[in-house]
Each structure stands twice: as structure tokens, then as C-alpha cells.
Amino acid sequence: MINLAVLISGNGSNLQAILDAVDSGDLPGARVALVVSNRKDAYGMQRAFQHGAPVVYFPKLPYTNAGRPRADYDADLARIVQSFDVEWVVQAGWMHIFTDAFIRAFPNRIVNLHPALPGTFPGARGIADAFDAYRRGEIDHTGVMVHLVPDEAVDAGPVVAQEVVPILPDDTLESLETRIHAVEHRLLVSALRQLLG
Ligand code: GRF
Fold it and tell me: What digits encode the pLDDT tens for the residues 66-125?
């Protein structure tokens, strides 16, 4: 079995897509061996509990309050993830940028989902930034990508899968988000199937 760790910070709908794919046989040979959240209120942890996956809540605040660098947090989290014999780390709505202290523990085995096309709208507001650009008349579509995280660059690693998502004249930010999340759920599972072979 290939052990996956899925890292979340919120709703966990992409985690749910992975859990459903494991249950339905769409990710043969894969298991969600660990779910990590850095947010106490992340609903994704409930989804993990319901699936029966081990859950670790690992906030960064104690490190910040102790004046410890983010590299300490990253190195400690890497050791926790390694202790679950994890082969692939999937950042699915994970709102934390790793330093090399984590990345070097999983060389070319970290996958990130980002709700924008390669080279566009990096960071935490990818969908809102695309919607704003659309309203300024600068773009007529956005998209979703799944990429590897080989280094500390944000939302910029080798692309594993990408898909264009049209923006429609009567779209609101919410309707665009809904359309993008539906693409994410499908693209992430197919990208993982591709990577896991
Ligand atoms: C998704 O758009 C993800 O790409 C972004 O956060 C959103 C929340 O995803 N990083 P989820 O429902 O928590 O999986």
C-alpha cells in the first residue's frame, strides 16, 4: 500500500475527494495514512475521523509564541509525518508555505493543489484574484493545477495536471468557486492516480 499524508487547513472537500476515491477503488493501492491540520476548526478533521484515518492537529502558534523559527515547526512536522511511513504528502487546502526543513524530508514527493493555472495568481487568494482580473476585463478563464513542490517556491513547481475553468458573465465569486472546487476534486484524484502509477 502507498501511504499518503493529506495536509489541510479548512473545509477539506479535496481531502474528501481523496477519501472517497480510496473507498471507491479509484486510487488503487493508496491509503490515507495520516491527515494533518494546522487549524483547530478545520472541518476536514471531522471528515478524516469519519473515514477512520489518523488525525494530527499541529498548530504553528506555539512555535511562534516561543519565538522559534518556522523551520523548527517544519522539521518537527516532517518527523511526525515520516513516523506514519508516508510516501507522498498531499497539500489539499493547506495554508502554510513549507521551508526546505520539511521539503527535504520528502524530495519530489510533495503534491500541491492550487486553484489557478501555472504562473498565475499564486498565494491564498487565487480564485478571488482571478475573479477580480476577469472583472477588469483582463482574462476570460482561470483554472486549476496540481504540481510538485521541489523547493520553497510558492505554487510554482513542475505541473502534474492542469485544467482550464471558464468564467461566465453572470458568475459571482461563489459560483466561480463552486465550479473550481468541482474541477479540483476530479483533477486532484486523477493527478494522484497518475503519480502513484
Ligand atoms: C481549495 O480551493 C484549495 O485549492 C485551496 O483552498 C480551497 C479549500 O479546499 N488551497 P478544501 O475544501 O479545504 O479542500
Answer: 999 999 999 999 999 999 999 999 999 999 999 999 999 999 999 999 999 999 999 999
Which residue, 83, 129, 87, 90, is CA-closest to 106? 87
Length of the chain counted residue by residue: 197
Q: Which residues line ligand 1 (CB under 6 A)?
A: 8, 10-15, 44, 92-93, 113-115, 181, 184
20 Cα to the center of ligand 1, angstroms: 16
Cβ burial of 98 (10 Å; 0-12, 13-18, 19+) is: buried
- Residue 147: active-site member: no
- CA angle (118 as vertex; 134, 125 as ends), nearest 5: 55
| 8-state DSSP, 86 | -
- Domains, the chain, in order of start with CATH, read 2-196 (3.40.50.170)
For residues 28 and 129, what is the distance between their CA atoms, to the nearest angstrom?
A: 36
pTM to 2 decimals? 0.97
pLDDT at 194: 97
* Ligand 1 centroid from CA 97, angstroms: 14
Ligand 1 center from residue 12 Cα (angstroms): 7
Nearest CA to 31 among 100, 91, 86? Answer: 86
Which residue shows C-alpha cell 473507498?
Answer: 23
